[in-house]
Automatic annotation (TrEMBL):
Its EC number is 2.5.1.n9. It catalyses: sn-glycerol 1-phosphate + all-trans-heptaprenyl diphosphate = 3-heptaprenyl-sn-glycero-1-phosphate + diphosphate. GO terms for biological process: glycerophospholipid biosynthetic process. It is an enzyme of class 2 (transferase). This is Heptaprenylglyceryl phosphate synthase. InterPro entries: GGGP/HepGP_synthase_I, GGGP/HepGP_synthase_sf, GGGP_HepGP_synthase. CDD domains: PcrB_like.
Length: 234
């Protein structure tokens, strides 16, 4: 992988703090998804993250970690994505925590597989918004401004539009997409089956499916083909 998420159209996000049965996990591994992203906004520990990594040992696709806390950054993942929350007034979530982590671990980071992930959190009720203090109720214009900032000013490789737990505003997502020139647009939030997956896949380059895996695995699995069959509109 020379670019983050290169070739990833569909991604399942697994939360180490939630239980997925072995059968469901095997179905995920055989689903044809392009990658597995390990992450969550609360309850992640070294132990539950390491346990999930071990369960994913036979994964035929890349397994990446979203590094929200330095103690989770264990070896063994194919890629490491470090969130930078764009729309929070709390500098700790922009660069503070990352800089503190690098004070201690800077010499150990595998930079060839580590990337920044610009996070635009747009569901004020989601855990990520609460934890990071994100100002998540944005107009299309405001969201597009953040997108431009991430893409043009910071030259981040990824812009992750995060609606975790709620299906997002697709008109806003389209506006965000138009503001990008180089950053890859990643969408996640509220995809509960193939229809919404296809809707998001028409706009975003990478579509992330999380929660539905734990509540309706069959619907979750059906999102893989839906995304794969959808051609992104320009
Ligand atoms: C969460 O964007 C992902 O970080 C996926 O969201 O859990 O709502 O599918 P859902």
């Amino acid at each position: 992988m020379t670019e983050p998420m290169e070739g990833w159209r569909h991604v399942f996000k697994l939360d180490p703090d939630r239980e997925l049965g072995r059968r469901e996990l095997d179905a995920v591994l055989g689903s044809g998804t392009d990658a597995i992203l390990v992450g969550g906004s609360s309850g992640l520990t070294y132990d539950n993250t390491a346990a999930l990594l071990e369960q994913l040992a036979s994964a035929p696709m890349p397994v990446a970690l979203e590094v929200t806390r330095p103690e989770l950054a264990m070896p063994g993942f194919d890629a490491y994505l470090v969130p930078i929350v764009l729309n929070t007034p709390d500098g700790g979530w922009i660069t503070g925590r990352q800089a503190r982590a690098l004070e201690e671990w800077g010499g150990l980071v595998p930079w060839d597989k580590t990337w920044a992930e610009g996070y635009l959190i747009l569901n004020p009720d989601c855990e990520a918004a609460k934890v990071s203090g994100a100002e998540a109720s944005l107009t299309e214009l405001q969201a597009a401004a953040y997108a431009r900032l991430a893409d043009r000013l910071l030259r981040l490789p990824l812009l992750y539009v995060e609606y975790s737990g709620r299906f997002g505003d697709m008109a806003l997502l389209r506006r965000v997409k138009r503001a990008l020139s180089g950053a890859r647009l990643v969408y996640g939030g509220g995809i509960d089956g193939p229809e919404r997956a296809a809707e998001a896949a028409r706009i975003a380059t990478t579509v992330v499916v999380g929660n539905v895996l734990y509540v309706d695995p069959a619907a979750a699995l059906a999102t893989v083909a839906a995304v794969r069959e959808t051609v992104p509109a320009d």
